Amino acid sequence: GGSGKGKGGSPFALLAAGFRDRMAADPEYVFKVLTEQIIGVGASVLGDMSSRKDWGIHELDFVFATLIVGSIINFSLMWFLAPTASAGSASASFTSKFFGDYFLRKMGAPSGHMFERGFPVSARVANFMYKGTVFATIGVCAGLLGTVISNSLIALRKATDPNFVQQNESPNVLANAGCWALHMGLSSNARYQVLNGMDMVIQPMVPQGAFRLITSVVRSANNVIGGISFVMIAKMFGVQKGADSEEPEVGGKTTKKNRKGKKNV
């Protein structure tokens, strides 16, 4: 989504206009963004670390990459998928139409999540497939940007600190971004659908304070599961080789056992 208001203005003016547009459609928008960025990203990193050997102590560079990419993805999801006044109009930009509900409405599918009332199964499947494409697009873009940033920061550390020893081989940018696209299109999309279906049922039934508490807990658990899910996919495709990998280092004969014991010197 995204409003055309403030076109040509400063980035801050565009951001402020975007927030106003989203808050007009969803008064809980800012609260949800803060929940996702503070609790959500933290829970995602916790899930990521819990699924690695020794809680990721030997893979902190991978955990750092997850933190960066996860922060970008969480904000992007909350920003682009939030309903806005202009997203469904024919005059909206292609970006607004793609991330909004314009094409879903054209297909006769639910405009938000697949569990919206009054739609046949085929329309719900169309929503899931379309949202999967949107999520995968965000995943690959955020994966590319986040992996480049994290790899660059590690390279900078190596260049400026002669005593720094990198724990693991930096993940391939394209392969890591591909894993994020797969993770987002399948795992995140499925969890997004379930979360919003739960919100639809629970929100009218309980007071606002209770709903905020429930959604905070549920979204935290969702992000823990998401962190675990991504690590499983990355390990499955060999994109992130952990510190206990048996592969020898370039030019050396490091084994699984002595690689783990390697110290900074």
Short note summarizing the structure:
The chain has helices at 11-25, 29-50, 60-80, 94-99, 102-107, 121-160, 173-202, 208-236, 256-260. With 265 residues, the chain is mostly helical. It starts with 10 loop residues before the first helix and ends in a 5-residue tail after the last helix.
Fold and architecture overview:
Mean pLDDT is 82; it is low at 1-7 and 246-265. The chain is globular. It has nine helices and no strands. It has 265 residues and is mainly alpha-helical. Helix 2 runs parallel beside helix 8 (208-236). The N and C termini lie far apart (50 Å). It has helices at 11-25, 29-50, 60-80, 94-99, 102-107, 121-160, 173-202, 208-236, 256-260.
Quick tags:
265 residues, 9 helices, mainly alpha, disordered C terminus
Q: How many β strands by DSSP? A: 0
| Derived structural class | mainly alpha
Beta-strand percentage range: under 5%
The separation of the N and C termini measures 50 Å
Give the biggest beta sheet.
Answer: none
Average pLDDT over all residues: 82
Order of helices and strands, N to C? HHHHHHHHH
Helical residue percent? 55-70%
